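stage 2 :: seqdesign
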């Protein structure tokens, strides 16, 4: 049964699965997407917290669940054969229906601590884009190796931990390679800029990644370029923006991605690591000794000298 919306569930609401019977207690709302609402929950009897997504439409959410199931199987298969850790995270934990006057489909996934990419860079500064970009490209590479493109790549769909680990969230736009992109955001869409089709391939995600970087570094310029008439939008307008970036190596990488010059995400990630991440500026942090600690140390030396004087004298 489909539905256009879900009522908001307040803190303390118990979501009980119809088929599996597991019970999840709502802590707070995490966000709303195009096809569902996500809550931070805790499963009864366990300490761990999870993200639970309740869908607006059964068929729509089931398609997303199918993608996550395929990625989960691919991750385990790759780790088994390659004997190495996959760049993909553990996605789907379980899927079920929640009876609340109607069948509301939901699925449970690992909760990712952190903040959206644009909020993270606003707090920590653009110098972190080298590390975060490398982590994000690794996630895309893992996704592509399993036969999917992410599609709707934008700052809101990237969560970053305090130490720079990036994770993709909201897989509602993920599509099999070779199929049409299901969900996209205009600025990040290759078709919007007349730069290619909306058929899912690795280059589509790399183009979106390049736009994501431009949006983070020069949102005003990107917005002005996007206001042009549809027939006049082109990659040339985006290349003009990259020329204004102070980091020439980053600008060169973006130029290649915007023009579809990488053979795939593996090559793109390799070039990023060698020319952008490896050349990032690392400023050593020096911590000044607090004045109170200096004074305490001086007083200790004085007392020590005074004690030795009296011991020797008497």
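stage 2 :: out
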């Amino acid at each position: 049964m489909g539905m256009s919306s879900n009522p908001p569930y307040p803190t303390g609401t118990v979501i009980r699965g119809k088929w599996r019977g597991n019970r999840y207690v709502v802590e707070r709302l995490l966000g709303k997407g195009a096809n569902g609402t996500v809550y931070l929950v805790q499963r009864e009897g366990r300490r761990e917290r999870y993200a639970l997504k309740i869908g607006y439409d059964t068929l729509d959410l089931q398609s997303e669940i199918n993608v996550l199931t395929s990625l989960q199987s691919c991750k385990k298969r790759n780790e088994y054969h390659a004997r190495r850790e996959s760049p993909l995270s553990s996605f789907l934990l379980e899927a079920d229906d929640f009876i609340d006057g109607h069948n509301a489909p939901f699925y449970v996934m690992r909760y990712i601590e952190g903040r959206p990419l644009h909020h993270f860079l606003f707090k920590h500064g653009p110098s972190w884009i080298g590390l975060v970009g490398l982590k994000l490209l690794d996630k895309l590479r893992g996704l592509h190796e399993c036969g999917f493109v992410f599609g709707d790549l934008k700052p809101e769909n990237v969560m970053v931990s305090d130490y720079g680990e990036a994770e993709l969230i909201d897989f509602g736009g993920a599509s099999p390679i070779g199929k049409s992109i299901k969900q996209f955001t205009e600025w990040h869409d290759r078709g919007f800029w007349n730069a290619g089709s909306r058929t899912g391939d690795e280059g589509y995600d790399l183009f979106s990644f390049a736009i994501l970087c431009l949006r983070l570094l020069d949102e005003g310029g990107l917005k002005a370029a996007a206001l042009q008439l549809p027939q006049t939008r082109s990659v040339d307008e985006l290349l003009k923006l990259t020329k204004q970036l102070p980091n020439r190596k980053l600008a060169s990488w973006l130029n290649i991605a915007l023009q579809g010059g990488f053979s795939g995400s593996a090559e793109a990630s390799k070039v990023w690591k060698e020319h952008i991440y490896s050349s990032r500026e690392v400023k050593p942090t020096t911590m000044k000794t607090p004045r109170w600690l200096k004074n305490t140390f001086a007083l200790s030396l004085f007392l020590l000298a005074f004690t030795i004087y009296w011991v020797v004298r008497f």
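stage 3 :: structure notes
- Confidence is low (pLDDT under 50) at residues 281-290.
- The radius of gyration is 25 Å.
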